[in-house]
């Protein structure tokens, strides 16, 4: 290889490393059972054809943060973002294994689930401190958004100056009230969706390209 | 023996002398013993995140199962000229109630009232 070709390759590598846009890690956070994994799966399926993790009606089904890499989302005007989606366990300040017993889970398994869930919440908080570049904060729009854990989490995200989109999920349900969520967090964009049915998901993708791009 | 619940009301002045980790250890040590802790001035967001993380490490089956925490909605401090120039405002942290999740239950909260129900262990 001639000295000129070698030099050209080196310069090319240097320029690529220098100008290559960093891939953002977008964390999906929110309380348990808000639909975080359902949304992560929908995003991954829509743009890569794969899924991130299993979903369940039992709280804390997701007990480890899981990452789906290299998801490229294209907006209506053709602009794109490439992100990693990090699906996180539901954040809470309390976990009692007895809650799992109500779903027909045996005591031993319930204790194991509770222990894994506590580790998962701690891990999710650690990710937020170290490894997340933007947040989708996911809320069940049939539930009270004014819970202290939501207020705290949004405050923590704001204090880290991370871009945040608030998703009002489960708008397909009769008690859904995305407006309550808008009232709770007027300082952030709120996107009402149904991640199960896919309603209004296009608006979310548009906002993601705008906010996280 | 008389049944009851200990309540510690901690002044802003006392809190200001503690480091973040000292505050969090103090809160968790008290709450794990069944004490309700009332902070005259709440924790900052970084401390709240650490409190959640450390609470998770303390949870045990048939033992401590976490905390209940409630605070008034924060007021945005009126930004000064420099803050406006730099685009910085700091939400004011306000009175905060923290207790064991199996003893403290919040009944109602609005911008200047927190109503809670406390049971003995």
Uncertain residue segments of chain A: none
Poorly predicted regions of chain B: none
Strand residues, percent of chain B? 25-35%
- The CATH homologous superfamily of chain A is termed P-loop containing nucleotide triphosphate hydrolases
Helix content of chain A: 40-55%
- The third-level CATH topology of chain A is Rossmann fold
Question: Distance between termini of chain A?
Answer: 39 Å
Helix content of chain B: 25-40%
Terminal CA distance of chain B: 13 Å
CATH class of chain A: Alpha Beta
Measured on Cα atoms, how large is the radius of gyration of chain A? 19 Å
Question: Which structural class best describes the helix and strand composition of chain A?
Answer: alpha/beta
What would you say the CATH architecture of chain A is? Answer: 3-Layer(aba) Sandwich
| Total number of beta strands of chain B | 6
Plain-language structure description:
The complex is a heterodimer of chains A (213) and B (121). With 213 residues, chain A is of the alpha/beta class. Chain A has a single domain (22-212), classed as 3-Layer(aba) Sandwich (Rossmann fold), CATH 3.40.50. Chain A is built from seven helices and six strands; from the N terminus they run αβαββααβαβαβα. Chain A has helices spanning 3-19, 36-48, 98-101, 107-130, 148-159, 178-184, 201-212; strands spanning 24-29, 66-74, 80-87, 134-140, 164-169, 190-192. Chain A has a six-stranded mixed β-sheet, sandwiched between helices. The two termini of chain A are 39 Å apart. Chain B is an alpha+beta fold and 121 residues long. Chain B has one domain: 2-Layer Sandwich (Translation Initiation Factor IF3). Chain B has helices spanning 12-16, 20-32, 45-58, 81-86; strands at residues 7-10, 36-39, 67-71, 96-100, 104-110, 113-118. In chain B, helix 2 (20-32) crosses helix 3 (45-58). The longest helix of chain B has 14 residues, at 45-58. The two termini of chain B are 13 Å apart. Chain A binds chain B through residues 91-97, 111, 114-115, 118-119, 121-122, 125-126, 128-129, 146, 148-149, 151-152, 155-156, 158-160, and chain B through 44-46, 48-50, 52-53, 55-57, 59, 61, 65-71, 73-74, 91, 101-102, 106, 109.
